[in-house]
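hiii so um. not sure if this is the right channel but i have a protein structure encoded as tokens and i wanna go backwards to a sequence. like what aa goes where. can anyone help
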């Protein structure tokens, strides 16, 4: 029982990750990364950042690399420093918006304005409970609209990208009938949270004890949040997405097995453009930092689908 209570607490109230030194380095000199940063809080207190390409075509190291990779792929690029659309980036469990600054640097280098924000129970968000999209699905759209109104830019066209828990939030956002996203990318995310909890419990305790542990965890999670863990079901939602989707997953992911990503991809409607990308040898925590050129794949996807034709 105690183990289930502790596991449910980790799900509902994960330890908040403090700012890291590399976050502070980026925040202190965004121009060195070829971007301009603007911070604001949404009306509900959600801390957010807008990251825009630096005027004049000045690029940081990562920006130069991603443009070179895309040029080698014969991808047509906008002029460096220009803005052709927006991308909202949604962090994972125990993450924070600043974790996405280096990701934003790459998207900015190819012409996107990036909007980053802290999910409830993460970073500096005043919310205390993580519900994996059940209560957060509105936030990406809200943050985009409030940022556009505050800083005077057009909210469209826009795409969305989320990792792990952020992928679950992004899936719910993209599945809404009035979703503003022209395209979406889901990285290392799960089909159902219950499947992931059961997998991890079984890995630690064995199949039958793990099953019992996962059931107890789900019961305590509902007690803590008022949300049934069975309702955190991305695979039931992706069937309703009507926009281009890329699903990417590491082949060695021990937290969210690659089969979870494959099931999500298989459940996407046949009538949309979709793409499955396997990242060889990548685990959950290093999925974006292997030798595989995942940023070239993701930025090309957004360049193809987000800008107005």
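sure thing!! here u go:
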């Amino acid at each position: 029982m105690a183990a289930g209570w502790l596991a449910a607490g980790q799900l509902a109230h994960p330890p908040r990750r403090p700012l890291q030194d590399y976050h502070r380095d980026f925040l202190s000199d965004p121009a060195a990364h070829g971007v301009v940063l603007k911070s604001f809080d949404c009306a509900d207190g959600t801390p957010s950042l807008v990251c825009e390409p630096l005027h004049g075509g000045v690029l940081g190291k990562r920006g130069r690399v991603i443009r070179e990779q895309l040029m080698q792929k014969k991808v047509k690029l906008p002029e460096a420093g220009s803005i052709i659309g927006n991308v909202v980036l949604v962090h994972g469990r125990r993450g924070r918006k600043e974790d996405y600054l280096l990701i934003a640097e790459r998207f900015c280098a190819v012409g996107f304005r990036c909007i980053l924000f802290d999910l409830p129970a993460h970073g500096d968000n005043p919310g205390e409970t993580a519900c994996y999209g059940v209560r957060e699905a509105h936030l990406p759209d809200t943050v985009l609209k409030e940022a556009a109104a505050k800083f005077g830019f057009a909210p469209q066209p826009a795409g969305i990208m989320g990792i792990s828990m952020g992928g679950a939030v992004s899936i719910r956002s993209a599945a809404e009938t009035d979703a503003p996203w022209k395209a979406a990318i889901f990285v290392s995310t799960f089909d159902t949270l219950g499947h992931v909890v059961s997998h991890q419990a079984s890995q630690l305790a064995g199949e039958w004890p793990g099953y019992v542990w996962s059931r107890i965890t789900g019961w305590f999670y509902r007690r803590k949040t008022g949300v049934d863990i069975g309702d955190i079901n991305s695979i039931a939602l992706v069937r309703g997405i009507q926009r281009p989707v890329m699903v990417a997953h590491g082949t060695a992911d021990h937290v969210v097995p690659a089969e979870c990503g494959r099931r999500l991809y298989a459940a996407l409607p046949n009538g949309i453009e979709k793409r499955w990308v396997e990242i060889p040898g990548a685990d959950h925590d290093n999925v974006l930092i292997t030798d595989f050129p995942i940023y070239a794949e993701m930025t090309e996807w957004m360049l193809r689908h987000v800008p107005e034709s």
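oh and The two ends are 56 Å apart (CA to CA).
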